[in-house]
Each structure stands twice: as C-alpha cells, then as structure tokens.
Amino acid sequence: MMKARVGLLHGVVVSAGLAFAAPAVxxxxxxxxxxxxxxxxxxxxPVIPIYEGWFPGRDGGFDxxxxxxxxxxxxxxxxPVGQDNRVEPAxxxxxxxxxxxxxxxxxxxYRRTFCAFTAHVADASEQVTWTLRFDGREYTVPSNxxxxxxxxxxxxxxxxxxxxxxxxxxxxxxxxxxxxxxxxPPLRGVVGRPVQLATISVRHPLGDRAVPASVDGGGGGxxxxxxxxxxxxxxxxxxxSSRNDEPGGWLALPxxxxxxxxxxxxxxxxxxxxxxxxxxxxxGGSYQFQCCWTNxxxxxxxxxx
Length: 305
What we know:
The chain is an all-beta fold. It has one helix at 33-37, and strands at 2-5, 7-9, 12-14, 47-56, 62-70, 77-78, 85-88, 99-100, 113-121, 129-134, 137-142, 155-156, 161-162, 165-167, 174-175, 187-190, 195-196, 201-203, 226-233, 238-240, 251-252, 262-265, 269-278, 293-303.
C-alpha cells in the first residue's frame, strides 16, 4: 500500500499522489488553486483530507479544523470509519465525516469543503492526524499548532464578517463559530419517509454593534444569513427537500431552517447531519477566507420500514 503524506499550509494540499510540488514555505491557498483544479475529474478521483488550522478552545486548549477536497465534480464518496477513514488519537475517531459531497461549484474559488469537523486537544504537544484511503493509497494530514496555522476569529469587524449565533430551540443551547459543540435535538425517522428538520434561529453576535451588511448581503444584514445542510456521516444517502439554485449550495435565510425542511434516508442506522450558517455566501465571501460561519450538527436514528 502506498502512502501519500499530505502537507497543508493554510489549506494548501500537497500530495505525492497528486503530483503537487511541496512548497518550502507557507503559502496562501490561492497560490495552488490551478494545481488543485487541474486534478478535478467527473469521477474516479480520491478525497483529500485537509487541515485548516487551529484556534483557541472555549475552555482552554485548542480546536483543530479539518475539511476535505473531493476531486470529483459529480461523484460523491462514502467511506465508513475504520482503516480507510480514521482519526488519531483513537479517542477522537468518529468525529470525521464519512460522506463526501462532490466539489462545490463556483463561486467557491477553492472548490472544497471547509472545516467539516473540529477536534479538540488540551495540550499543544498532542498531534491529530486524519487518514483517508482510496484504491490502495493513503492520504494523511497532520495537525500543526504553530502560529502560521492560526485561523481567523469568528468576528472580523474590519472585513464586515461575523459568525452568527445559532440555536435550534428557544430555550436550548446556542453556539457560534466552528467549535463543533452545537448539537440540535436528536431526531428519529424511517427509511423512505421524510423527517422534518428543526427550526433554527440566527442572531448577530455583536447585537447593537452589528457590522453593517456588505454589498453581497454579508454581515447579517437584510437577507445576510445563508445556510446549508449536508450529510456528515451515516450508512446510506440522504435527500434534502430544500432546493437551492444559488451557486455553492447556500440558501438565504429564512428560506431554510424555518421548520419546513425535510430529509429522507435510504438505509437504516445512525446519521449525523451538518449545518453551516454563514454571513456571506457570494464570490469572495467569508467562507473562503476561514471566516465567518457556525457549524452545528444533528443526530438522526433511522429505522427500517
């Protein structure tokens, strides 16, 4: 079995398996976009794990963000947790996605999925790795807590960008940013029957000091919140009722998240759905610059017919 060590410098994928040249110094992701895009095919390509960087944990320690780059324009990939999809140390295994959507369309300039999950470590000496294996070749990415990998805070007033505060229930917990600790109420369903997703509420973290809306609707102004659901993990595939004609897969609130969204499952088992809410989904939006959005998750237990 061949192993390809994936080096990540602020989201840049460097892999022997993809014929990328390893840079000697840290680079901005835009510098290797052409190399990444040239590897895109309709199908038959691997999914590359990506280390996005780190930011301080809520109660100390460090939160490490990992995303992925599916090199397929049309083919989704599913890899269950195990030797072909593992996070080390073992206590963190299982937080990673097992379903990988095809490469997002423009205007997502980097054409990949950002910060699909967050791993928390209490000690700076602890390294986290994520490994995916396709066609006998492993792609492994390690974490790195050096200063060059520190990513943006959830509020960037200078860029008119903020990560919204999200919650699922009026009296329930709320969260902001990519810490990965916001979970909605667990749901139950049956194969082939639509399950109604919870209503979500979104508010601006700065309150009266709210950043003015940017020209593309960012900053949480009128029409300025956008969201999308995705399958994070599970034994089958899903179909969301929300139809989105916007590039990049984002829906403007309140079109999504008002208790009318449903999801249908193809197989029984435990699923995790991932919700991402952002203030700007347009070209050059915050999502592509590691700021500013909020991750949330919902567990669904699906029974057979």
